[in-house]
Amino acid sequence: NAVQMTVRLEEAELVLPYELERPDKRRSIRLTRLDQAEGVLEFDLVHAETALANAIRRILLAEVPTVAVEKVLLYQNTSVIPDEVLCQRLGLVPLRVDPRLFRDCPDLRPTEDVESLDPRCVLVFDLDVECRKRDDGSLEHDRVYSSDFRWVPIGDQKSLLAGGRSRGGPAPVLPNILLARLGPGARIHARMLCVRGIGQDHAKFMPVATAFYRLLSDIRLVREVGGELAERLRACFQPGVISLTEAGLATVADPRRDVTCSREALRDPELRECVELGLVRDHFLFTVESTGCLPSEELVRESIKVLMLKCRKFLRLLGQE
Predict the structure, then answer these.
(1) Which phi and psi angles does 38 have, rounded to 5°?
(2) What is the pLDDT of residue 18?
(3) Which residues form the DNA-directed RNA polymerase RpoA/D/Rpb3-type domain (predicted)?
């Protein structure tokens, strides 16, 4: 028996047949934690194959596009940081801009005429910071931060990008990323050309700081465990995994908290006869942490869209579409 999994894309509907050992088990995604302030999403992928879970993880890391600095026109750099190191730092600054509003730009060439650039392909930032000594001897602008980026709108970008997630215009995700320190009279003056890309091309395009999954622990008590033995069993796991009833009997409270898949109970000769430890092979606990370019829940949606498009292409090659 085959179970149909349907995913509706923006332009079409794709129905893929998957053979399951048990037709009554249907894949599902359960949201367990969403911290929008930190950009962290935790969700469960249930009744799925390892290949599907790993495909989502790999696409999140390498194939969901973002926007990052691609070319740097460095007019002046009298800081102690070498030019190539400074340019690399600029490229690694995550930018708060929706990549879905841009097209790919494979043949970008450095140019000072920004008006000749395609506003649907290129985003421009300027950086111009000079350190000066005040009358009292203190230094002004002796540190260069990501907040010193200045967006230069081209074409109709001002109306296109000023709203939505950009909140006033594209900018670095964090304003306090330290890029360089300057001495009196030192100056950094650069123009940055940003394009859309994927992590498969360069790490600066990775949309996630981390994306990983683990299997849900399967902890089973084969007989009643009470008294001092129950206390020892609880101490073998992280807090919250094993709890004690009012009668002092051990119960499995929350196997999700067993993040290390502890096997400490199996080292105890007495506890070894009371508990069976394993993993639920089709229950994946995902953690996705966004760099801030898009919310983590949007990144998961985009990764599934990329996966579906890959499936469409493969089915087309097989002549099934």
Answers:
(1) -95, -10
(2) 42
(3) 40-317
Q: What residues contact 282, with CB distance under 8 A and at least 6 apart?
A: 25, 46, 47, 48, 49
Contact 172, 95 (CB under 8 A): yes
φ, ψ for residue 222 (rounded to 5)? -85, -15
Closest by CA position to 227, among listed 245, 204, 254 = 245
- The C-alpha atoms of residue 231 and residue 250 are separated, in whole angstroms, by 8
Q: What are phi and psi of 196, to 5 degrees?
A: -90, 140
Domain ranges of the chain: 2-63+209-222+274-317, 66-205
> What are the residue ranges in the chain where pLDDT is below 50?
1-21, 23
CATH 1.20.1070.10 fits 66-205, yes or no: no
Give the Cα separation of 2 and 272 in Å (integer): 40
Task: Please answer whether residues 238 and 257 qualify as being in contact, where contact means their C-beta atoms are separated by less than 8 angstroms.
Answer: yes
d(CA 194, CA 293): 13
Q: Which of 148, 151, 153 shows the shortest CA–CA distance to 117?
A: 153
CA–CA distance, 45 with 62 (Å, rounded to integer): 20
Position 8 scores a pLDDT of 40
Token digits of residue 228 = 């001092």
Assigned CATH class of 2-63+209-222+274-317: alpha beta
The SS3 call for residue 89 is helix
> Which residues fall within 8 angstroms of residue 14, CB to CB, at 6 or more apart?
6, 7, 8, 308, 311, 312
SS3 sequence of 155-203: CCHHHHHCCHHHCCCCEECCCCCEEEECCCCCEEEEEEEEEEECCCCCH
Distance CA 314, CA 207 (A): 25
H helices of the chain, in order, are 50-62, 83-91, 157-161, 227-235, 296-317
